[in-house]
Amino acid sequence: MRIIIAGGGTGGHVIPALAIAQQLKKQFGAEILFIGTARGIETRLVPQAGFPLELIQVGALKNVSLMTRAKTMFDLPRAIAASSRMLTDFDPEVVIGVGGYASGPAMVAAIRRRLPTLAFEPNVVPGFANRMIARWVSAAAVHFEETCRYFPNCRVTGVPVRAAFFSIPAKTEGQPTLLVFGGSQGARAINQAITMPESLAGLRARIPGIHIIHQTGQRDYDHVLAAYQQSGISGEVHKFIDDMPGTFGRADLLVCRSGASTVGEITAAGKPAIFVPFPAAADDHQNVNARALERAGAAIVVEESNLGAAYLVDTIAALIGDARRLGSMSAAAKSLAHPKAVEEIAEMVAQLSGPADV
Predict the structure, then answer these.
(1) Which domains, from first to last, does the chain contain?
(2) Pairing label, strands 139-142, 154-156
């Protein structure tokens, strides 16, 4: 089995793509080629994982300046032609688009050649690349039932998540613990809101004995660390947390962004969350993701514009002090989990590749 996986840009695209590649290699001995761009995180993560990566030149079309959009439109035909040459050279049986800059051109090239194609879409509303080719793909693997309205042949598989997130035991004792994070780079708005003097003082007063674990990212680490030291509140400050499943297990409640990978990890772990969606996310997908979990009773959504100290403290205190509600939110989150996501996606790829490979 020979498979091309196209797309990237952010960890939300690349990390699930690598999980799919690893499962296909493990289960079917597949040969995998990635197609990405030089500007994405795939240039680091894909070679580290041991997979070959070819690059095309293409940029963004959404939420960019007129000049950037014009350049992208100029690059697009060449990106499709370059992708087509890669398809000729590699001769894949299936092309998987995971969203991001490289996904669109590669999927267009595959559709033109009438190759089997699979779109992977972890957000409620598909990203621009997947939305543009949605009606022509052979099949789609999605995280939310609502997403299937965009694709003709759609299956709700969920997002591939590390197995460790599914085996986190429920926290039943110990000091009340809050986990704050904003992705690998941190989230400045969340970092600043939590570490306002009135926020930390309010949390210390309203929740005696609270312990906060805070992943800041590189740029805000020194400021956040100083804020905790000055407040006297019990806190751990990290630039980056390597063992996120273990850290989830220590927390009663999370405060975080709502990218697709984070949402997948939270449902797998069954953790109650306060989501602060990134307001500049393409197509407002973080807000849409967060609202889907809020409707299910698994999360609370706080808009970034409402991150005042009083409101934030009130929201955290009301939840972390209510064990019954936390338990209900945890159960609701767990009900949305998909422990066999990567296996189901691999099965879809095998079915598209032909009966001999299933």
Answers:
(1) 2-161+339-357 (3.40.50.2000), 164-335 (3.40.50.2000)
(2) parallel
Amino acid present at 190: I
**What is the Cα–Cα distance from 160 to 243, expressed in whole angstroms?**
17
Beta-carbon contacts of 269 under 8 Å, excluding residues fewer than 6 positions away, are 165, 166, 168, 245, 248, 249, 333
Measured between alpha carbons, how far is residue 15 from residues 38, 98, 115, 186, 344 in Å? 17, 10, 24, 17, 17
Cα–Cα distance, 122 to 252 (Å, whole number): 25
Joined tokens for residue 201: 């003082």
The 8-class DSSP code of residue 6 comes to E
d(C-alpha 10, C-alpha 27), whole Å: 26
- Residue 238, CA distances (Å) to 162, 228, 307 in order: 21, 12, 22
φ and ψ at 66, to 5 degrees? -60, -35
Strand order in the sheet with 211-215: 234-238, 211-215, 177-180, 253-256, 273-275, 299-301
Dihedral angle, C-alpha 261, 267, 272, 273, nearest 10 °:
20
Give the whole-angstrom CA distance, residue 136 versus residue 180.
40
From first to last of the 358 residues of the chain, give the pLDDT tens digit.
Answer: 999 999 988 777 888 999 999 999 999 999 999 999 988 889 989 999 999 999 998 755 455 555 555 555 556 788 999 999 999 999 999 999 998 888 999 999 999 999 999 999 988 888 888 888 999 999 999 988 999 999 989 999 999 988 899 999 888 788 999 999 986 667 889 999 999 999 999 999 999 999 999 999 888 999 999 999 999 899 999 998 889 999 999 999 999 999 888 999 999 999 999 999 998 877 788 999 999 999 999 999 999 988 888 899 999 999 998 999 999 999 999 999 999 999 999 999 999 998 644 4
DSSP result, 91-107: --SEEEE-SSTTHHHHH
Residue 214 contacts residue 236 (beta carbons within 8 Å): yes
Are 263 and 289 in contact by the 8 Å Cβ rule? The answer is yes
